[in-house]
Amino acid sequence: MTEAETIAERVESFVRGIVVPFERDPRRDHHGAPAPELTEDLRALAREHGVMTPHIRADGSHLSHRDTATVLIASGLSPLGPLAVNTASPDEGNMFLLGAIGSADIKARFLAPMLEGRVRSAFFMTEPSAEGGAGSDPSMMKTTCRKDGNHWVIEGRKRWITQAAQAGIGIVMAKADEGACMFVIDLPDPAVRIESVPNTIDNSLPGGHCTVALDGLRVPADQMLGAPGEGFRYAQVRLAPARLTHCMRWLGACLRAQEIATDYVCRREAFGKRLIDHEGVGFMLADNMIDLRQCGLMIDWCADALDRGDAAIVESSMTKVAVSEALMRVADRCVQVMGATGVSDETVVEQIFREVRAFRIYDGPSEVHRWSLAKKIRRDWDKANA
Fold this sequence. Notes:
Helices cover 49% and strands 15% of the residues. The chain is an alpha+beta fold. It folds into three domains: 3-88, no CATH class; 121-229, Beta Barrel (Butyryl-CoA Dehydrogenase, subunit A, domain 2), CATH 2.40.110.10; 232-384, Butyryl-CoA Dehydrogenase, subunit A, domain 3 (Up-down Bundle). Strands 2-3-7-6 form a four-stranded antiparallel β-sheet, with no helix packed on it. Helix 3 (65-75) packs across helix 7, helix 7 packs parallel to helix 9 (313-337) and helix 9 (313-337) packs antiparallel against helix 10 (349-359). The longest helix has 37 residues, at 231-267. The radius of gyration is 21 Å and the shape is globular.
């Protein structure tokens, strides 16, 4: 058994045996997301069982992307699993980014407590669309930063900032004369004001997706990641792997939904036979088997590209589209074959359906990725026919 398989086996045992019973824990906020007390209890149990941040070794080195997939799929078997073992978004992507480009001081001050699962984080990039701010097109960024002595002062508004209301660390993108910049900050800060936390279809992550005002936020110059103007380059360091790890976690969730749906249709009878024996039902779960296997193959293919040292922008776009849409089909079929039970909170299937629907939008909706891929097709044709 490989290192990754051994870790994944421990993570799967922990998620199935310890985390799954907490899916009915009543400690939730108004939106149904896990309350801080529930998160801390889950993480204490993860430390006790030796599965905290399992894809990063004690010396700070990461498993390969291919091996990370093995572990993160196991962590995703419950919507609470990634939160419990510290493989959840946005923390996982933020840890990867700081590990890749952070200075020694930044790693000691900001990354270390994140690896220990004692601090959660937020990534401040998306802005309100009504104000013409950055969304799928980050070049539209309106948030500004200017040098003031040995600090930078940030002004602007951000929107859909996941778990900002409960984060202890933030990574903020802003625009200077030199171009995009990226900063790491301590939270809370009086200059970072939560304006609203709208209810959304998904609720697996604490703190929701916040609208945030940055009112004269002062950040020491040594907390800039890299140099002025390098922010978009560093965003790409984070975004391609982060798209892929989303796919890993939600593949795990949909494998669980398939298990639950399979158990249901193999026990339930109608019209004189078990539901699984009706082709209209059995064929849907057969199609799920195909989609789930194809998702795993796409994830492995993209992970291999990242492990070769490729930027994997194209591979991650293709994988994000293919996996998010396939998993949506899987979750939808699971709901359908379970009938009224599938849309109730009697099982976790209905939540997985909601979470996967949101997954088709965040980290770039399918349409944006297809548009980007179409541009590449045109560029490649123009180059070949010049």
